[in-house]
């Protein structure tokens, strides 16, 4: 197979060719590659681009192999003379050139072996070298070595006149021969290429140059034979031989560029390597000097007699005392474990108790004082295990004990774990005590967000001098605890509770590996146990929930303080640590939420075309009336008088109807949450039982309807009132998150004034006094000229119902209810009288608002029925009726909607999440995309509630416009689409990425 070898021009010297002196100006113009062509399989012909064409030289295969072998040996032996060779005088180089041995740059790569087709010559061929012709073989080998060497002669030697032999052609000829073979690249690498050689000789009549005429001639027979071949090839038509000159130019530029890049990278890398070598070398020398100085100093120090004596004493102490100290027994560990755990339980329980206060002059016996004291309450908490078979104390001991054990197993050092656990419990107890004194509320997981959110520095500003004394005492106690544990750690020879070693000599033993596996397995399992218990404590049916219930755990989710007092602060904290909010709806994404925002923005625009008013043109008062409902709608309950005639008359004249409540006998916070946010508890996971306790504290942003007024009229436009303690359902912190500027309650600041009780109802303040206090606070203040959103929560009709009222027309003959126990009858009759008081107080309140020359709209609703109808609740057919309360939307005389009453088809049935959308419709006010969605949702499914509203345990409850239940399987495609949009919106706002926050979804057009 024909082969082509590309080698640098400067190396092209061989027999039968003339040496040429190229001027300096043309050195860079010479093509960097010449071509070595095997034309007949038994020899090699070199065609070198010259000024007038190609310079041709022929070599036999034997010559080429001999030249390569000698060239390799010569380079190996003369490697130390490369630099001197490059700097020889010009006359010396010229002398070498005339003898056929020009200077060769030793830096160039060596020649590469030829293809296997060149390994041997055919016997009898006229080009086969005579093996006995030693002199000729040597001469040809030298020629071939010069011709095919791997190095370029230096530019310096070329400029000093080193001749470059070549052979002048006798006649013009153009030869194109296909070739496939090894390419010798300038960097010494080898490539196999397919190419063709286009060789052109100089014209016939061209006169040889002086250099050509003076060059020695050799190898005449071979040259003549190859010349004939070139001449014959020149007779071929040019169209059959594509020109190779452009490719050679490209190859030349590519080779030059690569060589330049390679040299630059090599230089840069050498510089970097040299720099780091210098730097690290200096660092190593400096470190060695430093270490040597330390070693010399230490040697000098330990050589002192006094120091030597101390060292000897320490060695004696270690061998005779330290190494022989005892290992504390596991029995001792157990005793310490029980004592520390019990102390932690009592300490946390102490943090939620406070000493009672008695009125001046009140006579209290010593026994009562003892029982009501903190010590008495702690004693009662523990002794109830035996007296009342309530095991909350034992449950707290187990929970804290498992946590303590986890510390021990993870750290594997008993005394270190004891110090850490004791410190943690002390800090928790002190912080809990201070918060209870400040806000009558224990620490909950949401408080950790307050601290980690950058507010930790402001905590100390809440403390009093009394608190500082407590803190200082706690710090002293913690220091002593740590000191004792450190001492015991050193006195205890036991290195770890589960000992093992990392020493290579003992690591691979079966005993050590077994101990290591047990140690880490115990640590991991203890962590898993703690996480699993916390994760499942609020999940109905989980092992954690069942375990806690079996030990008398009775959650009081409506009151964090009550839960901590009854069940322990540890259980209250863990109960709120993890709650599943809701499942991720299908298709939830940023693009989907932006699409929904755009979709309902269009719906809002369509609605607003027919609306002329603004919500913020009115003061809106939302009244949650505790447990208010019409008792006569309960099956089996009746009276001789109507307990709520005034409100019944109001309902007949304004927008009104029945509200489907998710609660019966409780759940106030959830109904309030739905009314303020427009979200629905039915969309949440069943384990999320109270949003105010389990969800809102964890959220950084919660959109509520009162914020519409804040945006339009300023942040002071939202005010809340509650006729009870501000910490109930964490309202104090939640209202701040909602954007209420003030929260009036019966405790703390600002405080409600002028409240009073009715007869013997000493537990709760009357609605009448609450209404009056609210009106006086609102409309006597400087902010009365601004339209506001007012949130009011009453307490008069809250349970229990203990025959509070002296004048009760619904008692005795006034009550005509049948088939019920005396206790049930007493509760119902007392409750009916309370409803009657509320009925009159509400009418009086509305009359007061009618006197104000400013548009005011009231949204009044009862949150749930009282849990006193035990007879009616036994019949499952009454479940929905026991979850329906009364509501109305009323506007005063100064409002343009004073006489508005929406059609019963849109108002007869609702749920509290729709109140603001209904109020906007009642006021003919423009809506946001969110309110537009709720308006459309209310038209499709008028009422939505949790499964418990119908006594079910799986499917939410949906009511149509006539109050009939819509089964999930009977929902239309449009209703299902709207419900899915509802789930997407609610998930995004509470459990998702809150993509809607960055849109105008909550913005109301003005």
From TrEMBL:
| An example molecular function term from Gene Ontology annotations | transferase activity
- What is an example of a Pfam family matching this protein? Sulfatase
Bias (Low complexity) ranges: 165-179
Q: Which SUPFAM superfamilies match?
A: Alkaline phosphatase-like
Organism name:
Bifidobacterium apri
Q: Where is the composition biased (Polar residues)?
A: 96-114, 191-207
| Location of the Sulfatase N-terminal domain | 619-924
Listed A to Z, the keywords are: Membrane, Transferase, Transmembrane, Transmembrane helix
Name the UniProt record assigns to this protein: Phosphoglycerol transferase
Q: Where is the composition biased (Basic and acidic residues)?
A: 62-73, 85-95, 115-134
Q: Where is the composition biased (Basic residues)?
A: 153-163
Bilayer-crossing regions: 329-350, 391-409, 414-431, 469-491, 512-537
Region entry Disordered: which residue ranges? 62-225
